[in-house]
Design goal:
It is a single chain. Helices cover 39% and strands 23% of the residues. By secondary structure, the chain is α/β, with parallel strands linked by helices. It has a single domain, classed as Vaccinia Virus protein VP39 (Rossmann fold), CATH 3.40.50.150. It is globular, with a radius of gyration of 19 Å.
């Protein structure tokens, strides 16, 4: 039995509290720190299985809120105000279904890649998931909304944080105490979504190109 499969304090606590996984306490700590999840919100949970994050969100948002979960794995729990979509959140079919509930107040993700045992490979695969989630969030997140995602340290986390600081008014790291000591996971938290910085850059590039394609012979350099 490896260190991840051994029941620890939080695994035993989750069982007693009625949660399907110990990961719930990571989100609980994040929300205690940043106070983002609130009653009445509509929230998207990417990689929602087995369902502990959705359980926690459901307990806060109440009857007037909605939690939408997406995963290619089955959920192990059902709850009020919850909808579960099975599949890849980046597929056209799932994106089309999610559009019915968008824009979201918050998009949260505890996704991790299927690890191969090579830290460098695992870290960059984790970064790839966060890049996909972040770019997805730009299209489905409400202005002023928030983004929470797990990422392994040792990949593109610095570049991701740099971009998030352009996309959100505030972007920060957070390491929950409930993360296992041997884990190199951290969480990125973006608050008050502004806009997709890549679209802003594309507009700037188009404007620069327009300046170059002038007909009066003036060269800006």
């Amino acid at each position: 039995m490896n260190d991840y499969s051994k029941p620890d304090f939080y695994a035993n606590k989750a069982k007693l509290d009625g949660y399907v996984a110990r990961s719930v306490y990571k989100l609980e700590e994040i929300n205690a720190k940043f106070k983002l999840i609130k009653p009445g919100q509509t929230i998207l949970d990417l990689g929602s299985a087995p369902g502990s994050w959705s359980q926690y969100v459901s307990s806060i948002i109440g009857d007037n809120g909605k939690i939408v979960g997406v995963d290619y794995k089955d959920m192990r729990v059902s709850m009020p105000s919850a909808i579960f979509l099975k599949g890849d959140f980046y597929s056209d079919e799932i994106r089309s279904q999610l559009a019915e509930y968008a824009p979201f107040n918050g998009i949260i993700s505890d996704m991790a890649p299927d690890t191969e045992g090579d830290k460098i490979t695992d870290c960059f695969r984790s970064s790839e998931l966060v890049w996909k989630s972040l770019n997805f969030a730009y299209d489905y997140l409400k202005r002023g909304g928030y983004f929470i995602a797990k990422i392994f340290q040792g990949g593109d986390e610095k570049e991701i944080m740099k971009e998030m600081k352009s996309a959100f008014k505030e972007a920060k790291w957070f390491k929950p105490a409930s993360s296992r000591k041997i884990s190199y996971e951290i969480f990125v938290v973006g608050e008050n979504f502004i806009s997709n910085p890549n679209k802003n850059k594309a507009l700037d590039d188009d404007n620069d190109l327009e300046k170059l394609n002038n007909s009066d012979g003036y060269m800006p350099w």
